[in-house]
TrEMBL record:
Organism the protein comes from: Candidatus Defluviibacterium haderslevense
Protein name: Beta-propeller repeat protein
Spans through the membrane: none
Top-level taxonomic group: Bacteria
PANTHER family in alphabetical order: CELL SURFACE GLYCOPROTEIN (S-LAYER PROTEIN)-LIKE PROTEIN, PHYTASE-LIKE DOMAIN-CONTAINING PROTEIN
Amino acid sequence: MGEIHRWYTGDIGSCIKVDNKGNLYVSGTYSNTVDFDPGPGIQNLIGNGVNLFVLKLDTAGNYIWAKSMGGSNIEENWGLAVDSNKNVYTTGQFQGLVDFDPGMNIYNLISNGGKDIYISKLDSMGQFQWAHSFGDNFTDRGSAVSIDGSNNVLLTGSFAGTVDFDPGPGVFNLTASSSDIFILKLDANGNLLWVKDSGK
């Protein structure tokens, strides 16, 4: 499994993963209207600003599904992971209000003034499971996500200021003097297991 890093022209495929059956998953950002079916079919998604996408293809590169998440600002995708049950996780940064449910329902997250970290989970059919955000009024970013053998979620990136890394009702604040590294572990349901930081 590997990643393709982003380039800065047009629509961007930033990450690619392969599941245990050989299906391909691509994540990134797009704007306006994009046909995500690489074959003769048409599967358009319509962006509002610069939005996030996740695309699933079979082992031959045929379209299975594509999902869009976003708001009216610019979202960025930096990390993608797939667990043993083919659930799909993405991370990056966003600003303003973003609907992370790609279906008919709405699940809005709102940043705390600057760019915030997000982590999102979709199931094997691209249906929304959960999403969390973390941030202060500075620039924070989720850079990479990985899944361990128990399907726990490991997330790393950078943060500044004081950030509550507990997505639940509890509070677990870490404070960075400038921009520090964080390493966050969540269970498969998105609950905090632990978080650590490293920096000057």
